Sequence to fold (53 residues):
Amino acid sequence: PQRTVVTESAIHTPDDVALMRDNGVHAFLVGEAFMRAAEPGEKLSALFGSNSS
Fold:
């Protein structure tokens, strides 16, 4: 069966995102990294790139 893999924690850097993608993760629940960022939109771009969807 087809599955969507979601990670729910410990996403703080682009390397974290790359590691998860390399291991089959399709979706990310990011909270603390955005809450602690002075500019959450900039943090989003830093984590996932400017073409995030």
